[in-house]
C-alpha cells in the first residue's frame, strides 16, 4: 500500500506542516503530512490508495481544537476551495464542508431560510456536522437531514441523520471519515428580520465572550447538560463558568494560557502559550472544581496529537 507521498494527487500534500497557524488558539506541532484535496474525487482516490495503517485526522478551521505541541502523526486532511460551494433550493441548503458556518447562515438568510444560529459559530460546516454545533437553543442535529462523506477506505457515501448518529457535541462518524458536504433545512423567515437577528446575536457574543481573543469556545461542558440551551433544567449553579468563578479561577494563568476575565469558561492564548500550557491550565481548573464541589468538568475543546517530545 502506498505512503502518502507516493499517491498521485490533484491537490496539495505538505510534509511536516506546522499546524499552529491553522488553529484558533495558535498552538500545535507539525502534522507528518497535511493533505488539501482539490475536490471530492481527489479526496476519495487518496483515501482509497493510502496505506490503511496511516492514521487520518480531519480538521476544519481549528476553532474547537488544542493541537498538542508534538503535532499529529499520519495525515491531517483540511478541506479548502474545492469544498466551498453553496446552493439554496426552497428550504434546503447544500453547503460544501469548508464553507464557514457564518457564510452558510448569511447565504441562507438572504434566501429566506433561518439558520441564523450558525452565524456566530466560527467553525466550518463540516465540523458543525460532525460535532453537532449549536447555540441559542438550536443545534445542527435539528437541521441536518444528511451529509456526504468520504470514508477512510475511499469512496463517497451519503449519510442520513441516523447514520450521523447525533448526540451532544459528538456524532458517531468513524475517525478519519471526512464530511464533504452538508444538507441543512431551516424554517422560512423574512431576510431583513433574519439579518437583524444575526446582528443582535453578534453583538450579544461580543458583549459576553472574548471574541477578539484567541480561544476555542467553551472549554468545558455545562455539567447540567447542553450549553446555552436555556432549558429549564440548565440550572445556573451547574454552569461551567459559575463553577470556575466559584473556584476563584476567573483570570487564572498558567504560562501563556489564561481563563478569560470576560467569560471564565473560555480559555485564551494570552500570548506565547503552548498546547501544554492550555491543557495543563484546563486540568488545574478541573482539579480545583472537583476538590471544591465534587463535580468533574468534561472538556468541550478537543485535544489531539502528541505531547512535545521530552
Ligand atoms: C469564539 C468561539 C465561540 C464558539 N462558540 C460556539 C458555540 O456557540 N457553539 C458551538 O457548538 N461551538 C462553538 N465554538 C466551537 C467551534 O467553533 C465549533 O465546535 C465548530 O463547529 C468547530 O468547527 P471547526 O471547523 O473549527 O472544527 P475543528 O475545530 O477543526 O474540528 C473539530 C472536530 O470536527 C472534526 N471535523 C472538522 N471538519 C470535519 C469534516 N469536514 N469531516 C469530519 N470531521 C470534521 C474534527 O476532526 C474534530 O473532531 C466556538 C469557538 C470559538 C473560538
CATH architectural arrangement of the largest domain? 2-Layer Sandwich
Order of helices and strands: EEHEEEEEHHEEEEHEHEHEEEHE
Strand segment count: 17
Overall mean confidence score, pLDDT = 90
Strand order of the largest sheet: 6-7-12-10-11
Task: Give the distance, in angstroms, between the N- and C-terminal Cα atoms.
Answer: 32 Å
Number of helices: 7
The major β-sheet equals: 5 strands, antiparallel
Please give the CATH class of the largest domain.
Alpha Beta
Global structural class: alpha+beta
- Under CATH, the topology of the largest domain can be stated as Uridine Diphospho-n-acetylenolpyruvylglucosamine Reductase, domain 3
- Distinct compounds present: flavin-adenine dinucleotide
Low-confidence stretches: 226-234
What does it look like?
This protein has 3 domains: 4-81, 2-Layer Sandwich (Uridine Diphospho-n-acetylenolpyruvylglucosamine Reductase, domain 2), CATH 3.30.43; 84-194, 2-Layer Sandwich (Uridine Diphospho-n-acetylenolpyruvylglucosamine Reductase, domain 3), CATH 3.30.465.10; 209-304, Uridine Diphospho-n-acetylenolpyruvylglucosamine Reductase, domain 1, CATH 3.90.78. The strands form 5 sheets. A 5-stranded antiparallel β-sheet has the order 6-7-12-10-11. It has a 4-stranded mixed β-sheet with strand order 1-2-5-3, with no helix packed on it. The protein is 24% helix and 24% strand. It contains 7 helices and 17 strands. With 310 residues, it is an alpha+beta fold. The protein has helices at residues 40-49, 101-110, 125-131, 161-164, 191-208, 240-246, 275-293; strands at residues 12-18, 30-36, 56-59, 65-67, 72-78, 86-89, 92-96, 134-135, 138-139, 146-150, 157-160, 178-185, 215-218, 253-254, 257-259, 266-269, 302-304. A hairpin with a 2-residue loop joins strand 14 and strand 15 (257-259). Residues 226-234 have low confidence and may be disordered. The chain binds flavin-adenine dinucleotide (FAD).
Amino acid at each position: 500500500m502506498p505512503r502518502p507521498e507516493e499517491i498521485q494527487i490533484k491537490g496539495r500534500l505538505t510534509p511536516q506542516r506546522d499546524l499552529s497557524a491553522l488553529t484558533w488558539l495558535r498552538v500545535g506541532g507539525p502534522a507528518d503530512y497535511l493533505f488539501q484535496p482539490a475536490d471530492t474525487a481527489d479526496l476519495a482516490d487518496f483515501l482509497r490508495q493510502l496505506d490503511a495503517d496511516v492514521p487520518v485526522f480531519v480538521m476544519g478551521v481549528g476553532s474547537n481544537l488544542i493541537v498538542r505541541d508534538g503535532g499529529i502523526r499520519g495525515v491531517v486532511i483540511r478541506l479548502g476551495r474545492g469544498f466551498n460551494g453553496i446552493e439554496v433550493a426552497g428550504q434546503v441548503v447544500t453547503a460544501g464542508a469548508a464553507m464557514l458556518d457564518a457564510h452558510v447562515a448569511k447565504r441562507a438568510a438572504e434566501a429566506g431560510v433561518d439558520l441564523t444560529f450558525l452565524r456566530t459559530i466560527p467553525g466550518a460546516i463540516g465540523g458543525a456536522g460532525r460535532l453537532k454545533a449549536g447555540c441559542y437553543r438550536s443545534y445542527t442535529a435539528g437541521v441536518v437531514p444528511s451529509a456526504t462523506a468520504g470514508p477512510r477506505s475511499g469512496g463517497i457515501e451519503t449519510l442520513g441523520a441516523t447514520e450521523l448518529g447525533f448526540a451532544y457535541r459528538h456524532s458517531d462518524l468513524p475517525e478519519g471519515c471526512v464530511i464533504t458536504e452538508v444538507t441543512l433545512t431551516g424554517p422560512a423567515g423574512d431576510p431583513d428580520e433574519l439579518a437583524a437577528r444575526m446582528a443582535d446575536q453578534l453583538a450579544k457574543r461580543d458583549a459576553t465572550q472574548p471574541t477578539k481573543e484567541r480561544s476555542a469556545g467553551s472549554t468545558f461542558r455545562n455539567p447540567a447538560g447542553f450549553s446555552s440551551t436555556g432549558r429549564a433544567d440548565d440550572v445556573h449553579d451547574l454552569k461551567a463558568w459559575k463553577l470556575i468563578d466559584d473556584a476563584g479561577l476567573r483570570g487564572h494563568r498558567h504560562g501563556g494560557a489564561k481563563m478569560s476575565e470576560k467569560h471564565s469558561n473560555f480559555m485564551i492564548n494570552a500570548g506565547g502559550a503552548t498546547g501544554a500550557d492550555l491543557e495543563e491550565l484546563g486540568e488545574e481548573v478541573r482539579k480545583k472544581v472537583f476538590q471544591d464541589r465534587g463535580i468533574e468538568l468534561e472538556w468541550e475543546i478537543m485535544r489531539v496529537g502528541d505531547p512535545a517530545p521530552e
